[in-house]
Amino acid sequence: MEMIFMRIIDMSLLSTYCVAVVLLIRLFLRKSPKIFSYLLWIAVFARLVIPVTPESPVSLVPKAIGNQSVQTWIDREPSSPVAEAPILSNQLSEESLINPNSVTVPDAPSGAISWTPTESALTLSPEITSISVPQILSWIWAIGIMTLFIYNLGTYIYLKRKLRSAVHIEGIVYEVDSVTSPFLLGFFRPKIYLPSGLDDTNRAYILRHEQVHIQRLDYIFKAVFFAITCIHWFNPLVWLAFGLMSRDMEMSCDEKVIRELGYEIKKNYSTSLLSLATGRSLLHATPLAFGEGSIKGRIKNVLQYKKPAIWIILGSAFLVGLVVVGLMLNPPKLKKAAPTSNLPTEETAPTTSDSTSSTDAAEPSVSQSDVPETSPSMINDTPIVLDEKYDNAYINIDGEPISFRDVLSMGDYHPFEYFSPLDYRATTPVDLSNFGNVVSNSGYFSISSLASYTDDAYISAWEAIGPDGKDSITCLNFPTEEAANLAITEFAVNYHYNYVNNNPDELGAPLEIISTESSLIMYDASNFTSEGYFVIQYLSGNSVIQAKVFVETQRLQQFFYTMDDLGLAFPGIELNRNENSWPEKATLVTPEVFLEYFDEFGYDTRTNTNIEGSYHAESEDLMFQADYTLLSDIGVIDWYYLWNVTSGLNPNIDYFNTDTYEMFVLADSQEYVVQVFIEDIQISAWATLAGLSEEDAAAKREEVDTAIMALCF
After folding, report:
1. Which CB contacts under 8 angstroms, 24+ apart, belong to 623-626?
2. Does pTM surpass 0.70?
3. Domain that holds residue 527
4. In this structure, what CATH number is given to the domain that contains residue 655?
């Protein structure tokens, strides 16, 4: 059950992104028939229940999301590299840094690449002897599902008893005195229940509406979607998706009735809906009691509905088809960065020491004429063939050497499927001789030189520790580029070995590898570990920088600033160094103040019943919107920052913080978003700028700033 729960968590997290995409696309479908909004939810609920979908390079799911796994967060043993967050598997112990002779090397086959495994080499995790956190969470999840099942079964039986007095009218139609709103009940043979005393006109409209539901099998889809929602009961966004899906379903059904019976019935149809807007408490029991919810929104939609232009229908169909297919496809498992132009040539074949010369001579060399002229950051779609270099390099497992080839053959794929750090050469390597000064100026303490000797390990090493000891950055300088490449490659091989052994149901270690002309960057695709640390490696020339940063926004920002100062900027990210122009102190605002402010200016405000402590305001044209949300986990701010940096989702986001609040600002040509976090409250305001003139866009930005200033400062 634990493994099933872990997979459910993975699907729920991925679907959270899909919900966000659907919510965005729905904004572009405001003037389209609601059937298109209804169809959009197919992708969300399919991703919630289908564990594996096809891969495609044109997927709308970012790689950092599509390849993530919750097991890389919490399902780790303390001795695994991720849980303990070692930066390089061959990092020397304190004793070996002082005395190189204390490091023993296991006997390796003749001709192997000479390398020095150390005490921190990978060891297998001991068996679990106590109840783990995932086990506890899986039981809570199962209890939640059982509770929902028992509750819905009980209320369904209660409702059936209430309907015993129903009078059969004709076919599958019944009249009931105890309800005031029509509904469908049943799964295999649904029946239509109508309130008593309806006039002929209202009865005709209502019957046609329910018949459309039956023809489209909506009652089946809604029941299935509700079952999926119950499986993911812990995710509030799934409940939000279910509620909005139900609303889109009802509105699309209303529109079909109007198209069939004529647009002139809109007023009478709305009057019928209004007369049925009360007394539906029985219908909240179970989704099999297919009631007609969100009357206010339906009436508004009916009155505004008009025959759509053909271009709107075609455009909406194309957009919805594109989004549904794009969300159903997974991105490729790995970044396929392949630095081919800098592979060693016959003249510059790598040599590390005398002990490796015979091996290098025996290995087939690669000349520049054999590879295309590309840069290190370009993509190569040809998988790497495991050649002799993987046989002649080893990791230490319980004192026994195991070749890279044997390790990389484990699992369905390995981190070097399309790219090997052994072949990487920076065309413009970064000079890291100023490492100590830069990190010291960045606020790190305990800057110290760790060692200085020239065997097969470092020439020198620097280590910087954060003020509270949680963060660390180490710079290791090796005798040759080949030695540095081997060090970071050994880390990845060790990581892959441990991950596959501890996650037998996974395809391989979720390492991301990014290469540029100046550096290679390697980090876990899930972005953080179960202990809340972000682990990342940089390779440039003869140097390897290893970092372990506790996931808090200020710490992460300080780290990326430091790397930027060293010349190792994360690709695609321009860090904000502007001073905050907002006030230093923020005020904790209440929901009442939030709602009163927007009510006063004529915005449409409402309480979000699907998310506790959430409120929403929007302008009539939806060009301006705002949210008030009570956060259950303040750490979401830190994950949000890290996620955006490593995935490059919003490279234009600016981050500010003071003693009383944190703020994210996104400003581009399409939208302007301001998010303020005060204690456990998030207040967001945003404006859609697409298609606006420069003057109108400036007015919208001012509208957002004015609202944030009035509410928070």
Report:
1. 623/687, 623/688, 623/700, 624/685, 624/686, 624/687, 624/688, 624/700, 624/703, 624/704, 625/685, 625/686, 625/687, 626/594, 626/598, 626/683, 626/684, 626/685, 626/686, 626/707
2. no
3. 76-125+333-566
4. 3.40.1000
